[in-house]
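Subject: two folds for Thursday's group meeting

Dear M.,

Sorry for the delay on this. The cluster queue was jammed most of the week, so I only got both jobs back this morning. I'm pasting them in the order they finished. Each block is the input sequence followed by the predicted structure tokens. Could you check whether the formatting survives your parser before we put anything on slides? The first protein is the one we discussed after the seminar.
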Amino acid sequence: MKKVLVLIFLLIEFMGLFAILAHLAKGSIKGFGYKVEIPEGMVLTTSREVYCEESDIVISEGTTVIPTEIKSNRIYISFEGEDRITCSWSDFVEQSQLNELLDEAYQRRLDENAPVIVRGIVIGFAIGICWIAAGAIVSHLILKMQKIKMLVIGHIVVCVLIFAATVFSSFGI
């Protein structure tokens, strides 16, 4: 019965450590932006009159402009000698084309970062296995000394610490 209890604690600890490291691996790529690649010769058509505060330019509805940079929440265009006029997505008719470009960029980012996630999962699994091995040896030695309370309290403390680390890692602390 004591060995089953130790095994249950070790499995809970393994799952906690694995979850923390897998979560951190996935979270480590969140900060990386992704670049939308603009097809050569792409032009956008304004869907309404656009007023650009930074350069006091008014672009009338139906005007074609050249995008210089596309981000998830804004588009920079070139118009009348200005290269960095900020516009929103809703200012343009080509919504479906813009969404396709954004989806492609996002998928490309996921594909490029997949090895980072896999590496984090593998490291989490390896650390978890090492934890089980070390925990089994230490638990076996404590069981030999007949210190059951110390063993249970130790595993409970470790489980609480792993739980706390899991919570803090999900908040980015």
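Second protein, same layout:
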Amino acid sequence: MREFKAQKKLIDIAFENAKLPKNHQGYKIYKALVFHRFFEVLSNAYPIFYEEVDKKRFEKIIYEFMRYGAKSEVMWKLPNEFRTFVKKHKKFQEIPYVNELLWFEWVEVALMMRNYKSQKEKKFSYSKNYKLNSSVLLKKLDYKVFEKESYDKKGEYYLLAYYDFNDLQVYYREISLPMYMFLKELNKNGLNQAINLIAKKSKQTKKEVKEFFKASLEELINLRILKRI
């Protein structure tokens, strides 16, 4: 119990919930080390964001985050907590695309750290049903944060982020609105409903919709972006 209280006191001081004892250099060093660790994790998780913002302000926000936003004991989860903190407290709002940029950079960490079950590739068939794999995220964006030097370009963009099981890394792919709508509906209500939705929106027959999407769906199966259910 005494050891636990001592550790808690160190944490409170590091997070500025308690004052530093006078002439106690050890606490000051500990506080500096904790801050350095937070800075290292967040600047590495968000390299694009870090290049975009004022460095002194970034450090100031990290201190605020340490005191009021950080809760997880797992270091790889801190970037997501920081992203949520920035959005909730409206930090860096002079950058209109800040929340989407942080999401974009966080996705790579999120997908890399998930646990995936082994999955055999199966040939695509319209007679089967499918959903998005857990290695995939879809996102509608208002800014082109996935393209260098176009971060502030406003519009409507649809992004598919996925973990590649062969290359063991995360890739991003800009997709069309019809594909975005199709995959969202497929994941929610199944393949047939996705075909019906696009047929209704495009005023094409279901056969035409199937022919249009077949090659893309075969590729998504091969990449394990879709899984059979």
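Two things I noticed about the second structure. Residues 25-45 form the longest helix (21 residues). The longest strand covers residues 154-164.

Cheers,
T.
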